[in-house]
Automatic annotation (TrEMBL):
<dbReference type="GO" id="GO:0022857">
    <property type="term" value="F:transmembrane transporter activity"/>
</dbReference>
<keyword id="KW-0732">Signal</keyword>
<feature type="signal peptide">
    <location>
        <begin position="1"/>
        <end position="18"/>
    </location>
</feature>
<dbReference type="Pfam" id="PF04069">
    <property type="entry name" value="OpuAC"/>
</dbReference>
<dbReference type="InterPro" id="IPR007210">
    <property type="entry name" value="ABC_Gly_betaine_transp_sub-bd"/>
</dbReference>
<feature type="domain" description="ABC-type glycine betaine transport system substrate-binding">
    <location>
        <begin position="27"/>
        <end position="293"/>
    </location>
</feature>
<dbReference type="GO" id="GO:0043190">
    <property type="term" value="C:ATP-binding cassette (ABC) transporter complex"/>
</dbReference>
<protein>
    <submittedName>
        <fullName>Putative glycine/betaine/carnitine/choline ABC transporter permease/substrate-binding protein Opu</fullName>
    </submittedName>
</protein>
Length: 300
């Protein structure tokens, strides 16, 4: 009996030690995402690809830009997709750089002190834009931001602008547009709301102009027009991976794992993915998996 108990005790000890060892050896990582559709999709695709390569992935989604950046700096998030323009202008208080590779180089130089590295830059440029309903823009003769500024100066307070709080206060948001194009929104003419509500507000004629992301499928679906940024104010916002240096050192294979996805992402492909979620009401997880399977990045 004693011999049997000894054997059982030894078996349990070996099992516990093995379990602890497996837990210690598990490739754990937290993937972050901001609070809009494109970010949810990018996070889902990243999670799926990392899980396919043996990672234990936790998602931390629905964060505002600055909250996500803080989480990355404080290592509450290990990896996220972010945008070159946001990194330079908003986080690092630098002037924008239109060339993607140059922007990536500058980001890595400046973010080294913050323990953050940038990689896997894509051709997807999710820059900001101001949009109007096509019929109203045509009626008012507005096709460019210069036209818009002239109209605002001639008709102060007439047009209402939908914006999320972040864009309303960013250097590369409303304050910068006003300064670059020489106009000023009248008091109470900026209606702040959640970023997901601005398109509906414009569609339903609650406002006359809205901030938009250039890759958003609702621009076409709702018959909006992008007002041409004829002074090229808005910086490039190419999607790229931002991760902690600690994560890169621990898992150098991540860049290679995500490289095939990087090659497939451009403004058109992201616009289509956004369309499937926002217009066709598919789940982010479903369309992420479909996309990866369709392009041979994962198996069914």
């Amino acid at each position: 009996m004693k011999k049997l108990l000894l054997v059982l005790s030894t078996f349990v000890l070996v099992f516990v030690l093995a379990a602890c060892g497996n837990d210690k050896d598990a490739k754990k990582i937290t993937v972050g995402a901001k609070n809009f559709t494109e970010q949810f999709i990018l996070a889902k695709m990243t999670t799926i690809m990392l899980e396919e390569n043996g990672f234990d992935v936790k998602e931390k989604s629905n964060l505002a830009s600055l909250a996500l950046r803080s989480a990355l700096e404080n290592k509450q998030v290990d990896l996220t997709w972010d945008y070159t323009g946001t990194g330079l202008v908003t986080y690092l208080k630098e002037d924008p750089i239109s060339d993607g590779e140059e922007a990536l180089k500058k980001l890595n130089e400046l973010d080294e002190k913050n323990g953050i590295t940038w990689s896997n830059i894509t051709e997807a440029d999710n820059t900001y834009a101001l949009v109007m309903r096509a019929d109203q823009a045509k009626e008012l003769g507005i096709t460019t931001l210069t036209d818009f500024a002239a109209y605002m100066n001639e008709h102060p307070g007439e047009l209402l602008m939908a914006s999320h709080a972040e864009f309303a206060n960013r250097k590369d948001g409303i304050p910068g547009v006003e300064k670059e194009y020489g106009f000023k929104f009248a008091d109470n003419s900026i209606v702040e709301m959640d970023s997901g509500l601005t398109y509906a507000a414009l569609k339903d004629k609650q406002v006359d102009v809205s901030v938009a992301f250039a890759t958003d499928a609702r621009i076409k679906e709702f018959d909006f027009v992008i007002l041409e940024d004829d002074k090229e104010f808005f910086p490039s916002y190419q999607a790229a991976v931002a991760m902690t240096m600690k994560t890169k050192e621990k898992y150098p294979e991540i860049e290679e794992i995500l490289a095939p996805l990087q090659e497939l992402l451009n403004s058109e492909s992201l616009r289509e993915l956004n369309y499937q979620v926002d217009i066709e009401e598919k789940s982010e997880d479903a369309i992420a998996r479909e996309f990866l399977i369709e392009h041979g990045l994962i198996e069914k």
